[in-house]
Amino acid sequence: MPDHASINNRKIISAAAECAVKYLRTDDNKTAGEVTKSIIKEIDDKLSKEEEQNRTLRKLQLEELEILKAFDKVCRKHNLRYYIVGGCLIGAVRHGGFVPWDDDIDVSMPRKDFEKLLRIAPTEFKDEFFLQNQKTEKNCYFYYAKLRKNGTYFGEDKFEHIDMHKGIFIDIFPLDYVPNAPLLQCFFFKAFSLLTGFICSKEKTTEFLYKNMSLPFIVTFRLLQCILPKFLLLLLRNFMGKLANLLSGKKYVASLSGFHGYPKEVAPAAWWGDGTDIEFEGVTVRAPAEYQTLLTHMFGDYMQLPPEEERINHMVDSEKIIFSGCTEKDYKAKIIRKRSHRYYGCDYDVYPVK
Predict the structure, then answer these.
(1) Strands (E), the chain
(2) Is 120 within 8 Å of 74 (Cβ atoms)?
(3) CB atoms within 10 A of CB 350
(4) Prediction pTM value
(5) Looking at CB atoms within 10 Å, which of 45, 93, 159, 267 has the fewest?
(6) Separation of alpha carbons 164 and 160, rounded Å
(7) How far is CA 193 from the centre of its chain?
(8) What is the pLDDT of residues 89-109, one digit of tens each?
(9) How far apart are CA 180 and CA 252, in angstroms?
(10) How far is the CA of 135 from the CAs of 86, 165, 230, in angstroms?
(11) What is the domain partition of the chain in residue ranges?
């Protein structure tokens, strides 16, 4: 567990050093006392802002925990298998709850259980929550699902130009069977990633494209992106998931839409199994049967804290997080993005909605 006192001391020292360097580089003819007062004020402002962000982060975590509890209740009622994954699972093992700087909850479900969840969601979640996926939200383009809390708002930049539900959420990733052969596994991930790239380009999301790509690839990508309609790309991507399952030996499963890609997202189905109970923030939730083996496969020494510069999250501005009182009007597009893609060295043209 991290020593929070020492972390806070390092933050104060770091802020003081940053301010001192700033004032030493200025040409102002200030006295030592005036410089000291300026540094102290700036440090106070920095620490106050950070404390506010930490309070908002913790409040967000607790909102997400309530969504997870509702999700867990429905899954247990209908005997649906699910597992907390990624940073959420690391947090459960290493911290007994959220990783201190993490701001989201990810779960995975075997495809069969995922599809059943989609069918029962309208009657089980009713007014308090909304299960967002390609069937329930016409502008939803991602392969996985989000369970969002109605009346709340989480302003992710990549969705600000799209009319869709933007409530606080947990992510739900389907686990598909994939072929046993590593070469075929790699093929499906590459194809899936390419189709997702086309779709994200169509949707003008904030993911960068073309990093380290050759000019012929970029030209071909742009041409196909202009020709292929969105509905066809979505159909092709869904077909790839079904084809992977059809060609599988039912030995390996993968989260094709997972953030870690091949080969980290591929694991023996036995590692997942029916799952096991684990404590998370004082609540009993489900984890993969062999979660320690799975975590080592994906993250290596997951018990080791990463360097401070790598302790990042998806946190948005606190002004873009609303914990109650939102309506469908608040989920309408806030901006308009020009051009069909974003690439290194050139960003979107952004205009406010009038």
Answers:
(1) 83-84, 106-110, 129-132, 145-149, 153-154, 169-178, 252-254, 266-268, 276-280, 283-287, 321-322, 335-338, 349-352
(2) yes
(3) 14
(4) 0.85
(5) 45
(6) 9
(7) 16
(8) 999 999 999 999 999 999 999
(9) 6
(10) 26, 13, 15
(11) 4-352
